[in-house]
Each structure stands twice: as structure tokens, then as C-alpha cells.
Specification:
The protein has 14 helices and twelve strands. It has 400 residues and is of the alpha/beta class. It has two domains: 144 residues, Alpha-Beta Complex (Aspartate Aminotransferase, domain 1), CATH 3.90.1150.10; 221 residues, Aspartate Aminotransferase, domain 2, CATH 3.40.640.10. The chain has a seven-stranded mixed beta sheet with strand order 2-8-7-6-5-3-4, with helices on both faces. The chain has a three-stranded antiparallel beta sheet with strand order 9-12-11. Strands 1-10 form a two-stranded parallel ribbon. The longest helix is centred in the last third of the chain and has 27 residues. One of its GO terms (biological process) is amino acid metabolic process.
Length: 400
């Protein structure tokens, strides 16, 4: 083992010192070696990638498509993404100037924040929210401005938005996630339009994370860009909708003048995305069969969702039916451990069942747990059995 030069331990930036590891991945990795562990922690589809998409990647490899592309991604992929955004959500973006290919949605959001933030700029984040947002803001010198919406059905209201804007004078951007990770909540067209009316009066950039857009169950997904295109950057990709998390292809879409600047930074971060991965994503975005693939996955997710909502409700968890994504965000019953981190650890210790503590998703997440149902029904049925055993054990002890 090589020991670092001691004096180098102080080499890191002040910004990095403020950054916390992801509570989701840290916990998931920590419990991985627990014997007989059943993990419902990571939001990763369990479906196989459809064959026609895999074959597109194979064809690119066989054709020796192994040379540098351009940093914005192949024009074929950008045209396919433009087609997809128009066909699915009625959005209109020029492939040449308004769409950027990123290494997953996460790199796309990082690129935006790195490009716009000066030291101390605020990034508004309605919480509970994906914890990576706050840390990406911090590492780029910004300050996360958390807005707890847990008492408002996990929806940011226009009044709340206006109040936060009036109380702060250094907000550079807002990150809206629709559908939401971790709550599964989706915004209606009316709710988005009302937020757009408030934001239109400001110079706040809207980063609209719509990576779960295809997994909207109760109604067709509506993008924030329908109401505020001049001020919104749409974040999307193939990871969740097409079960392609390992391919690492995301897209950003927005006004050309902004995308040019984002691409300038993006090109220094990644140079170019992977050609075979882009070929597969091109197929995913453009082939009609892909839409059917996603529908079939979505129907199975709904079946799993309904099973978990019913099962958890019967066990006393307070849980609404999520209208998008593939997570259950459930409030822990009053007769069980109320500290969500202690609850999650106790569940691992007593039943070898791993879920994610809600407090890791920021203010409003305390006392909740997040369960990913991007897992087989067999796994979910076993998870419920273990939850039943756990709650029975705890409650019987309380009665003694």
C-alpha cells in the first residue's frame, strides 16, 4: 500500500471539503457483504436491454466505429433525441445546436452547474430530492437552497416558490425533478404552468430533470419546457426508460446560446461520449419498437408499485401511490423506530433487508424510507415477507 505524501493531504479544494458522499451508494455498498442481503436500494432497472438496441451497439463495434466523435455527440443521436422529445412530449429542438449528448444525466447536470455557478451562488432544490444535486452544487462553489415540500404533498407551489425567491437574492438555478426521485410524485401541466409564470419574472435557470419521464403512470408526462422553453434546460436520457444505466447516455436540450456554452465546458470534461453507446441510444430514441419496450416495462413497474403500496399500507406505513419513477417513499409507522437511519440499519441487522433512509434526501425526508421497485416481483415478495417478520417481531416485543 502506497502512503501519500503527508503534506499533500491538504491539497484538495475548499469546495471538495464541503461535499458528502452519496448516502444511497455508501449504504448500499456497506451492506453488500451482509450474508443473504436483499437490496432494494439502487434505482437501476432489472430488465434486460431489448435486443434491437444491443444489436445497434454490436454493429457499431463490428464496423470499427472506434474513433473520436464530436463532444456534442453524433448528429444521428442528436436527431434521434430531437425526434424522441418531439414525438413523446411535443418539444422542438434543433439537433445541430440545441441538443447535447452527455455521459449520463448526472454529467449533464454537473456540466450545467459548473458552467453557471460562481462562489456562493444558490441552487434551489425542492426536497426530498436526489442527494447528488446538492453535492454537485457544492463542489462547483454553489450553495444548495433546500425548500422542504413534504407538507405540500411533495409539490412545490407557486406561492412557496415566490416566497423563496423574494427572501433570497442570489439564486442562480432551480432543479426540478419530474417525476421525482425519491417520492415518485409528478407535476401536472397546470402546476408546471403556474411555476413557469413565477420563474418567467426572474433570471433563474430551470434545470428540469426528466430522466424518469417515460415512467409516468397516471397521465402523459408534461415537460417544463412546454411553458418556459427560453429559460429551461431539459435533462433526459436512456438510463431509466430503456434499462440502459451502464451505457451512460444522457441528453441536454435547451436554447442554442446556452447549449454552446455548456458544450464548451462539457468538451473538456469528457471529450466525446462512447460511439457504441451512442449507436445504441440512437436506436432507443428512434425505433418505434423502443416505445413498445418501454410500455411493457412500465406496466410491470405498475404491477410492482401496486403490490408494494398495498403491502406497506397493511403493515401501517403511510404511503401514497407514486405516479412516476420506480420508488416508494413511505413514512415509518409510529410504533417502529422513528429515526430512519437507525430503522434502516436495524432492518439490515434483523432481516437482511436493505432500503434507503429518507433523511439522505434532504429536509422533509426524515422518518421516511425509500424502496426501489426496479427489482423482480420475486424479490419484492420476499422483501415484504421480511418486513412482515420485522414488524411482527418489534410489535410483539412492545406488547410484552
Amino acid at each position: 500500500m502506497i502512503e501519500a505524501k503527508t503534506s499533500l493531504l491538504d491539497i484538495f479544494s475548499d469546495n471538495l471539503a464541503t461535499v458528502l458522499p452519496s448516502p444511497i451508494h455508501t449504504f448500499s455498498e456497506r451492506v453488500s457483504n451482509v450474508p443473504n442481503i436483499l437490496k432494494l436500494t439502487i434505482g437501476e432497472p432489472d430488465f434486460a436491454i431489448p435486443d434491437h438496441i444491443k444489436q445497434a451497439a454490436v454493429h457499431a463495434i463490428d464496423a470499427d466505429d472506434s474513433h473520436y466523435s464530436v463532444s456534442a455527440g453524433t448528429i444521428a443521436l442528436r436527431k434521434a433525441a430531437s425526434f424522441f422529445l418531439n414525438k413523446r412530449y411535443g418539444l422542438n429542438y434543433e439537433p445541430e445546436t440545441e441538443i447535447l449528448t452527455t455521459v449520463g444525466a448526472t454529467e449533464g447536470i454537473f456540466t450545467i452547474l459548473a458552467a453557471i455557478l460562481n462562489q456562493g451562488d444558490q441552487v434551489m432544490i425542492p426536497t426530498p430530492a436526489y442527494p447528488v444535486y446538492a453535492e454537485m452544487a457544492r463542489i462547483n462553489g454553489g450553495k444548495p437552497l433546500f425548500v422542504d415540500v413534504s407538507q405540500d404533498s411533495f409539490i412545490l407551489s407557486p406561492k412557496r416558490l415566490r416566497d423563496v425567491i423574494d427572501a433570497n437574492d442570489n439564486i442562480k438555478a432551480i432543479i426540478l425533478t419530474n417525476p421525482s426521485n425519491p417520492t415518485g410524485v409528478t407535476y401536472t401541466a397546470d402546476e408546471l404552468e403556474a411555476l413557469a409564470d413565477v420563474l418567467r419574472e426572474t433570471n433563474i435557470l430551470v434545470i428540469s430533470d426528466e430522466i424518469y419521464a417515460e415512467l409516468s403512470y397516471d397521465r402523459a408526462h408534461v415537460s417544463m419546457a412546454k411553458f418556459l422553453p427560453e429559460q429551461t434546460i431539459v435533462v433526459n436520457g436512456v438510463s431509466k426508460s430503456h434499462a440502459m444505466t451502464g451505457y451512460r447516455i444522457g441528453i441536454l436540450a435547451g436554447p442554442a446560446a446556452l447549449m454552446t456554452e455548456f458544450n464548451k465546458l462539457h468538451s473538456f470534461i469528457i471529450m466525446t461520449p462512447s460511439n457504441p453507446a451512442m449507436a445504441a441510444a440512437t436506436e432507443a430514441f428512434s425505433n418505434q419498437q423502443s416505445f413498445q419496450d418501454t410500455i411493457e416495462m412500465k406496466l410491470e413497474y405498475q404491477r410492482r408499485r401496486d403490490f408494494l403500496v398495498t403491502s406497506l399500507s397493511q403493515l401501517g406505513f403511510e404511503v401514497g401511490t407514486p405516479s412516476g419513477a420506480f420508488y416508494i417513499f413511505a413514512k415509518i409507522p409510529q410504533d417502529l423506530i422513528q429515526d430512519d437511519i437507525s430503522f434502516a440499519n436495524d432492518l439490515v441487522e434483523k432481516q437482511q433487508l436493505a432500503i434507503v433512509a429518507g433523511s439522505g434526501f434532504g429536509p422533509g425526508g426524515e422518518g421516511y424510507i425509500r424502496i426501489s421497485y426496479a427489482a423482480s416481483m420475486t424479490m419484492l415478495e420476499e422483501a415484504v415477507k421480511r418486513l412482515i417478520s420485522y414488524t411482527t417481531l418489534v410489535r410483539d416485543k412492545q406488547l410484552i
